[in-house]
Structure formats: C-alpha cells, structure tokens
Amino acid sequence: MKLFNSDYFTYKNNELYCEDVRIKDITDNVDTPVYIYSKRFFEDRYNEFTNAYKEIKHRVFFASKANYNIHVEKLFDEMGCGIDVNSGGELLRALEAGVKPENMLLTGVGKTDEEIKMGLEHGVLLVKAESLEEVHVINDIAKQLGKTAKVAFRVNPDVDPQTHPYISTGLAENKFGIDSTVAVDIYLEASRLSNIEICGIDMHIGSQITKIAPYVESVKKMADLIKVLKSNGLNIEHFDLGGGMGIVYNEETPFTPSELAEAIIPVLKETGCEIFFEPGRSLTANGGVLITNVLYTKKNNLKNFIVIDASMTDLLRPSIYGAYHHIQPVELIEGREDLKADVVGPVCESGDFLAKDRLLTATKRGELLAVMSAGAYGIVMASNYNGRRKPAEVLVEKNAFRVIRKRDSYKQLIENEL
Ligand code: LLP
After folding, report:
1. Which residue's alpha carbon is nearest to atom 16 within ligand 1?
2. Which residues pair with residue 84 across a beta bridge?
3. Residues with Cβ within 6 A of ligand 1?
4. Segment (H or E) for 188
5. What would the pLDDT profile of 248-277 be if each residue is shown by its tens digit?
6. Closest residue (by CA) to atom 20 of ligand 1?
7. CB 257 within 8 A of CB 44
8. Which tens digit of pLDDT belongs to each residue from 76-122?
9. Average per-residue pLDDT in the chain?
10. In terms of Cα–Cα distance, which of 102, 106, 104 is closest to 114?
11. Can you tell me the distance from the alpha carbon of 388 to that of 413, in angstroms, rounded to the nearest whole number?
12. Element spanning 24, H or E
C-alpha cells in the first residue's frame, strides 16, 4: 500500500511521527481516537499563501469553520492572519483566542439578529450581507445600537467550481449571496440606508477546488462588476475572493498558491481594491491526522472489515461526501500483507465508514491507524450521535506536544438536560 509521507508526518524506524514526536508517545498518554496537528504545517501554509500575494495589498482571514480550536486560531492570529467567523459561536471562539474584532469578518447565509448584534457590538471589521432583506436588518440593528455597520455583499458569480455538489456555492442554483445581475440595484439601495457603510464585495464559489479556471472566470466577472459599482459612486475598498483552494487527499493535482496568484494577480490589480482571502482547508487539512485504534477485524463471504474506535461522529467527510482520506498504519510491521477492507466505526449505521474497499496493510486488534488529511472539517463536524464523546485534540510543536482540547467527558454528554 502507498504511504503518505510529508515533511510533517514521517516514518522513522518504521514508526509514524508528527514533526519530532512519536505518535505512539501521544497515544500512550491520550485516549484514541485523537486528532493530532503539526504546528509547523499551519505556519508554513499560511506563509506560503500570503507570500504568493506579496506584490499586492492583501489580507488573509483563516476560515475558522475548518478548524476552530482556539489554540489553532491563536496561532494564526499571532502570525498576523485574520479570522473569518460564520456564527456567534465562531465569533466567541475567535475572541477567546485573543483575536481582535477588527481582524474578523462576520460571514453566514442566515445570521440571526443576535449574531448580527454580537458582530456590531464587538466591532468586527465588516459584516457580509447575503440579501437585500438582511442588509435592512443589519441597518435596523446598527441604528438601535447607535452604530454604523460596515457591509460587503456576497455576490454569486454563477460559475461552476467543478467540485462536489454539496460544497459548490457559486452557482445560481445555490443559496449563497446575491445575484450578480441585480447587484448594482441592491448595492445602491443599501448605500442609501442611514446606518450602513458599504465597503466591499465578496465571493466564495466552493470548496476543494483543484482547477484555476473557475477562479479566473469568477474574478473576471467580479472585476467587471466592481467597475460598474464604482462608476455608480459606490465605495468598494476591498474584494474578498473567499477560500476553496483544493488539497491532495489522494491523487488530486491542485494548483499551488503561487500558480493561482500568477493567474489572477493581473485582474486583481485592475480592480484597485485591497484583496481579501478566506482559505480554510488549504491552511490546515494536511496538517492533521486522526489516530484510531483497531478494535476488531472480521470477514464474511464478501468482505474484510476493520472495526476501529473512530467513526462518522469523529470524521464525517467519508460518510457524507464519500470523501477519500488516506489510512495507514502508525507502526509499519515487516512482512505484513496488504488486504482489501472496509474500515468502519462503532456507530449503528451502514454509512459509518472511513474507507470502503481500501487496500491497506493487514492490521490487528490493538494496533493504531492514522487517518490522514484530517486537520480541516474534522473535529468541527464531529457529533455526539450514539452517545459518543468527541475526541481530544493535540498540537505538536517540534519535539513537544500538548492537549489543546480534552476529549468530551461522559458528564458533558448529559449536563444540558434538565
Ligand atoms: N469562506 C466561506 C464563505 C466559506 O463558506 C468557506 C467554506 C470558506 C471560506 C473556506 O473554504 P475552504 O478554503 O476551506 O475550502 N465541510 C466541507 C467543506 C465545506 C466548506 C464550507 N465553506 C468538507 O468537509 O469538505
């Protein structure tokens, strides 16, 4: 079977390490399943991203929905990265991480009045509006608070990002943003509201995008719209391109940050705007693994099954998107054969699998497996279904590790019930 080796997760003497920490040294101290992250990966990806755009005025806002552990957010904040928050809960997390509100964007297709109020009271850099009705609500709330709300509209450029339909967001059929054909009228109406200050424009066409063309197409459409908006006297200081940059889970061949930068910088320059980005997955996914223990192995007439202690409640992506996550042993044992198996969890659903018909090294009860590329949309999508406790998270820095989130306790599972 093939092994995923990187500068951050490597085998030394047949044992998997995260940076300079032996994974086994972590699991000797922390229960499995457990998420383990490489700090250096997060730093390298952020630096690579921001360096790709150094010739233009830009800011990067980490999309915290991808991995909102407050220690992870703190790390991005300390590097000078802003944070994109999608709810009151994410706003609170960013505040807790010490992020200044002026370094946050408040996003979301269905913000409640309470969330808008939170954003305005704390003074986030801007609130993104996704409809004409919403901008009126933002105006009313700002008026009540005696504030002026800085607003950018999310515009749907109607471009196919060529990714999984569940994570496509920039097509006319998707619920996100306002229609580009009526954008000028909506902007003009919003600009007349007493407590709204229009400051920019935003797009986000989807996630796990591996081709440059959809970005080029949408950036061009948006650049044309920006020209029209500006000629109508509207203040468009910044253009937010969203996130969506794809990564390697298996055999994808995504573009690098500098390849995308090279393709779009000329158009971005023409807009005269400061450029914002909201990457999530590309900054964290391949910096995280989910380590799980093999509970049982069995086979029937058709298949081999490896039953592990992690499940769809810990890493949901394979169940809901049929997503591929590479799985490999934590310890390589000489002479072990390969075996085709389904890697399944303890939850009572046939959809509870982390891999189907996967060729892996045969493993035995008590051995550990590493589920790769789990640093984005992993723990954040975990649930307590089947009474399961969400796993702990561990951050590795060089030869040291620390638990940055404890595993749920049994007490926590019932404490909200009155
Ligand atoms: N900005 C906005 C407005 C977004 O909605 C998202 C992701 C991002 C930025 C960051 O996108 P990224 O760079 O991470 O692709 N749960 C799915 C992904 C959902 C993405 C939702 N929005 C998955 O596991 O693949």
Report:
1. 377
2. 63, 105
3. 63, 65-66, 84, 107, 167, 204, 207-208, 242-245, 278-282, 317, 321, 376-377
4. helix 183-191
5. 999 999 999 999 999 999 999 999 999 999
6. 207
7. no
8. 999 999 999 999 999 999 999 999 999 999 999 999 999 999 999 99
9. 96
10. 106
11. 8
12. helix 23-27
